[in-house]
Design brief:
Elements lengths: L1 H16 L7 H7 L4 H4 L18 H13 L7 H5 L4 H12 L9
Helix pairs in contact: 2-6, 4-6
Length: 107
């Protein structure tokens, strides 16, 4: 019995220690239609004025979008685009773009 409890505790610890991906990438893809104009269909922008966000870390994208929304990060382009996004929208978009091949190499 003690071994089963230890095993269960170990599995729970491992599961909770990874990043929490609350977003839904499929929903994020559907919600990304406005983003496509600047960042491209998968986040690999071909325009040098717009960053490539494909493959960026989920947590980074989540923070960046939340910061644009709160005004902590300033951008006259991004501010109005994120103003009406819900937290769920932001999580879904972060999940979509972080799941794409691009900036950060996947191992």
């Amino acid at each position: 019995m003690k071994n089963k409890l230890l095993a269960a505790a170990w599995v729970l610890t491992i599961a909770l220690s990874g990043p929490a991906f609350a977003g839904d990438a499929d929903a994020g893809k559907k919600k990304s239609q406005t983003c496509v104009a600047c960042h491209g269909p998968d986040g690999n922008s071909v325009a040098p004025d717009f960053p490539k966000i494909a493959g960026q870390h989920y947590d980074y994208l989540l923070k960046a979008l939340n910061d644009y929304k709160s005004g902590a990060r300033k951008s006259p382009i991004m501010a109005p685009l994120v103003a009406n996004l819900s937290q769920r929208d932001i999580e879904d978009l972060a999940a979509w773009y972080s799941s794409q091949s691009g900036l950060v190499m996947k191992h």
